[in-house]
Design goal:
about 300 residues, alpha/beta, Rossmann fold, 10-stranded mixed β-sheet, two-stranded antiparallel sheet, 9 helices, globular, Protein LOW PSII ACCUMULATION 3, chloroplastic, LPA3, DUF1995
Length: about 300
């Protein structure tokens, strides 16, 4: 049963600069920057599962969230120059090596909010701030953002849904997207629209009503779209949401992406636009490229075929 994000306890917000500048990893410890590797290595990477034709490749995996946000910003700028309209940015927020579920829901949302602010500060020039609308999942999140991470910003803050009297039972009030958009809006950034199953349906509506046949751009930031791609939501119970895998997601350009796999055959699926999709493994403090391809592989393929055969 969907749970309203307003019922999740919040944690105190650390300074944004501290979050972005520290190299966070398991155990909550902090690495000495002087000992930190540059994470830019010249490695051998195969172009296919048949590793008979290796090539040299610069693998630029970020050493911390500051580097990650800078890479995500550069990848987004390149995609916007290439006239991409529907973009995805996805990476873990509980540590660069974390996986979904490592962090508690409310904490992950707070961390995402901080990272979104850092991303906007890098991507959006001051004169464009009032033409950029950031959509949070619901109205309560907007209030929280204004009182904390986004206090004093010129960015336009908005919401996809608003609570109803029955929100504890999974019901929310739908917001008509055409009524939320202003003529001067140029960029929409949608923040983590995954906690309620209705949120991504509203994002699709926003795209259809306010982006298609315009010059506007829509960026989905940490939307956990792999849930839809992988069939996590059974089509029988969630037909509209499951349909997005065929009708909406193929229009997306995933411009920046990090997904980690744990276990003996662990690794990382990584992409920074316009580069290829690469499967990496951290060995001895450096990331080695095991595989690369032009199209996004499924998480199942990476976990069951690519990583075990490396």
């Amino acid at each position: 049963m969907p749970i309203s994000s307003s019922s999740i306890p919040r944690v105190p917000l650390p300074a944004i600069s501290s979050l972005c500048n520290q190299n966070r990893h398991f155990g909550g410890k902090r690495r000495d920057p002087k000992k930190m590797a540059t994470s830019i290595h010249l490695v051998v990477c195969s172009l296919s599962r048949d590793r008979s034709n290796p090539v040299e490749l610069d693998v630029r995996f970020p050493a911390d969230y500051s580097q990650l946000l800078e890479q995500a910003k550069e990848a987004t700028e390149l995609a916007l120059k290439d006239k991409k309209q529907l973009l995805e940015v996805e990476f873990p927020t509980s540590g660069l090596e974390s996986v979904p579920g490592d962090g508690e829901g409310g904490i992950e949302m707070t961390e995402s909010m901080q990272l979104i602010r850092g991303f906007c500060d890098r991507l959006i020039v001051p004169e464009k701030a009032t033409r950029t609308r950031v959509f949070f999942p619901e109205a309560n999140e907007v209030d929280f953002a204004r009182q904390s991470v986004f206090g004093g910003t010129s960015l336009r803050l908005d919401y996809l849904t608003k609570p109803s009297l029955f929100e504890d039972f999974g019901f929310i009030s739908k917001v008509k997207m055409a009524d939320r958009v202003k003529p001067e809006d140029e960029i929409f950034l949608v923040a983590y629209p995954y906690f309620n199953v209705n949120e991504m349906l509203v994002v699709e509506e926003l795209y259809k009503e306010a982006v298609v046949n315009t010059d506007r751009k829509l960026i989905i930031f940490n939307g956990e779209l792999d849930r839809i791609r992988s069939g996590y939501y059974p089509p029988f119970f969630y037909p509209k949401l499951a349909a997005l895998a065929k009708t909406f997601l193929p229009k997306l350009e995933t411009v920046y992406y990090v997904h980690n796999f744990k276990g003996r055959n662990g690794g990382t699926l990584f992409r920074s636009y316009p580069g290829p999709w690469t499967v990496l493994r951290k060995i001895g403090g450096r990331y080695i490229c095991l595989h690369q391809q032009e199209e996004m592989p499924s998480l199942k393929e990476v976990a069951l075929n690519i990583l075990p055969s490396a």
